[in-house]
Amino acid sequence: MSKSLSQETAAAWIKRLFGDTTSNYVTVEAIWSNAGRSGNAKEKNRGWLYNLLGSIKHLDLVEKDYDTVRGVRTIRGIRLTEAGERILRGNASRQEASTHEIRQVTFKSVKEDIGKLREQYPEFIIVFDAYLGPDDEKEVSM
Fold it and tell me: Rounded mean pLDDT of 68-90?
């Protein structure tokens, strides 16, 4: 795992490392257990974890928590960043938000949204046409 992982692959690893915990922090021992590496030698597991964390570092999903043991700095655990929190638990919060933030769509709201789109993307010509019905030839432009 020496090369950088995609966000989707990294998200799958984060979910696996954190397991079923609701905490934003997980110890290396829990990581090894969640990843099915409990039976491996400690140094082999540490090398594996350093490689994995190095391959997802560019995504800024977790922060390492270090401890110094006999003068040697080692990883004690990892903590989710805001980006990691969104990836690990984002789906549930998005579903909650979508059920609470349902807004009625009207021609006025669509016109306002199109105005915002035109401001955000001036390089595009944004056109919205609506017809009153399938049999009606009358056109409404905004």
Answer: 89
